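EI: anyone free to look at a 695-residue chain?
SC: sure, send it
EI:
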Amino acid sequence: MTLVFDPWLSGWAFALVAGACLTIAAISLWRNWKSGLFRTVALLALLALLANPLMRNAERSGLDDVALVLLDKSASQELGGRDSGASRAADALIDGLGKLDGVESRLAEITGTEETQTIAALQGALADIPRSRLGAVFIVTDGQATDADQTIAGLNAPTHLVIAGNDDEIDRKVTLTNAPRYGIVDQSVRVSFRVDDLGTDEKTTNDGPPVKVTLRVNGKQVLSEPVPLGVEAGFDAPLTRPGSTVIELEVEPRDGELTTRNNIAVLPISAIRDRLRVLLISGEPHPGERVWRNLLKSDPAVDLVHFTILRPIEKSDGVAKTQELALIQFPQDELFIQKLTEFDLLIFDRYTYRAVLDSFHFDNIARYVEGGGAVLIAAGPEYAGRRSLAARRNLSFVLPAAPTGPAIESAFRPKVTELGERHPVTAGLSEEDYWGRWLRIMPVDQRRGQSLMAGPNDAPLLILDRVEEGRVGLLLSDHVWLWARGFDGGGPHAELLRRIAHWLMKEPELEEEALSLVEDNGALIVQRRSVGETPDPVELEYPNGDVEEISPTQSEPGLFTMRIDNAPRGLYRARSGQLFAIGAVGLAAAPEMQDVVSTSLKLRPLAEATRAGVFRTNASGRVPDLKRVAPTGVRAGESWAGVVKRGAARIDAVRDTPAAPPVAWLILIASALLTAWLIESGRLRRAPSKPTDKI
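SC: here you go
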């Protein structure tokens, strides 16, 4: 029973009345404290009448305490038959809780294919359970939780752990201890790893002999050596080209281990160039020279070295001396012998042979290309004749085309060839139908390479070629600058030249033969880029080890794709000829399959914080005995688990009765006022006593 008030007046009106009553009472007490005392009583009774005091009686009925059973059904529970044992344990707990008086049991599940978020699942299950009724929580799990470091505010019920798993569990895993994700081209990165054999509660059993570890780079095996268990080992991974380099480490399996999915560690390393170093050698000045310079200088990632050669070293016409023509002597030996390999791209822009570079220099340029370098020749009329670069015997061996005559001075519109429509360098260039005209082209005899753009009568205009490890580009017109000036509508000069330069420098996104695996909303998309009409089929390896040969269909010129909806989550590998790709649906290395042995270490702090117990179960599904305990008592023992008695109740009905009837308050008010009036009128004064005669 509680005392409540239900005033007859609103809050502000009651406050005004109370203020007036207090003022009147103070004046009354000041004038005549005897009568003022009774007037004050009358005023207080009036305020009590207006406040309407009520005695509230609530009828209650007891509620059962709630015990939550949280069953782990994540992917790792399927290992070693733990799922069946855990299900039996959960059923046994539900049956045992049903035999306790005043206990309601509830079952919830933890799901997860890539990670087990036990705390998040527990918070969700507790959302609709009043904490005043929560008697206990039983978590049936293998103990592997990725959010075990999180806490739940206000959880004061014992949270018992029932760890599912056999006592003799064993698993072998490889862990990357130093795994850089980025590197610089031509600089190796250090990758470190460790191989461990783990038992129950993640106790290491690294007392066995060394185990064989296989190293693969981009799908090719490069090393297979024994490595001691529990010892950190490492190697230097070379990054020879820009783009992604996929490092795979696979350790041989152990008999009886839970899974081999964590015997493989995959590390994709993105290699980038520190700076793109470009050497631009210009010959006869022309308007296009500024186009090349502006393009290369506008890229902050490019270090440009630019020289213009106009005269030979020794000029015999007697007009001017060499030292009067240049501030410094041209460092031909330093550039083309000592430091040539430091450049990523060498560009000859309308260069004419002037005896500055000799045959030894050109021979070194040819070796530079064959060893992996890149050369681009932007040719004009100088490409024909005895001073042409094509006439340099050593260099001509790596050029894809030789001149057949002088330049053809005729207007034409450049066009992309059928092959160029499939090549990433020229595919998708904007507004081809509106490109402006060029006015000159060099006729050549194409011996090798791919012709991506053509001029009049399908004459080659842009030829790209691979020479052993290097690449060569040949642009057979010096009129690309007309596009830059907007002549006849202009054209995509900047994009075209950028793509040519980046293809020569082996940028991955411009490779004409490429293979990639991409995830799209749970689907796996296999992409095969090729300039051929029918590329090699793709061998796709699924996460479970199954291999399927697929043939993607052409979705656009040069791009063949295949979509696999609802693809199983995990790591995929693909091969097509010499190409290799790796991809994942979901996480490539899901935490769910990295640590798989059953353990109580991660969730034990949660149990200790709530004074709960930690128990183990196996395939039989054994569970601890269940007991009812007091909130402040012991909550668990070695073989028993407690369910706290909360004593929660539900209010079924509420009755309010006046603390006193209104008539009683009115009688009290009238009596107090009457008494005050009698005191003030003198009627309650004692009559004076009459004197008595003395005898």
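EI: Residues 514-585 form a domain with the Immunoglobulin-like fold (CATH 2.60.40.10).
SC: 👍
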